[in-house]
Amino acid sequence: MDLKLERKNALILASSQGLGKAIAAELVKEGANVMLASRDEQKLAAVQKELSPLGAGKVGYVVADITNAEAIKSLVSQTALEFGGIDILINNAGGPPGGSFTDFNDEDWQQSFELNLLSFIRTIRESLPHLKKQGGKIVNIASSSIKEPIPGLILSNTFRTAIVGLSKTLASELAPDKILINTVGPGRIATDRIQHLDKMNADKLGVTQEKITEQSIGKIPLGRYGEPEEFAKFVTFLVSGANTYLTGQSYLVDGGLVKSI
Prior knowledge:
Blueprint: E1 9-12, H1 18-29, E2 33-38, H2 41-51, E3 59-63, H3 69-83, E4 88-91, H4 106-131, E5 136-141, H5 154-174, E6 179-186, H6 192-205, H7 209-218, H8 228-238, E7 250-253
Parallel strand pairs: 1-2, 1-4, 2-3, 4-5, 5-6, 6-7
Helix pairs in contact: 1-8, 3-4, 4-5, 6-7
């Protein structure tokens, strides 16, 4: 299948590690130009060096704090200037801290709102003039909590679900401009985030992290955590030329973990 990604220009947030990095790698392999973005320049430079030999496209990076409106404006403008446009936007952000409702104050809620929802809104808004030129693709990375709330992750449950409402509404508004937008939620994918959550739960229950991981895997029909590359391949399809009719949808890449219909 020809994914028609050669010379397409992609901006990927939170792409110095984890799922963002894995998506960047797949797009580079398909010949796309990829702009990496995160707050850690050292990691970004290392990832740029690692990914550049994988394909014919350019790999650049911009250091950006996506909770800052001006930083997002600069990130989008630099991407469009360097690549000559933006065809693909992948919104992504690190997960907010775990805890219950009584653990968080107004500042905690505000910080999570700015990181996990407002950053997506701002980046879409800034990217639209570029995406509208020839049509484009947007994927918002969320969580399996968009289908089933995860205990102990109330901040994530709240704002990840809001992303679905945003995406579903924009699917109709952006369709006349030939822009497709979808939401993808990872299940238990083997990233640093999942390692952190397993350790948090282990500490809370007074058991080993290995025990928590074993219990989590036992709930997954496929019997293992997913690999970042598996998640990335699905996102790559959604933003590719092979996807011409899927928009406004929410998908899980979770090995069958979530039982909701």
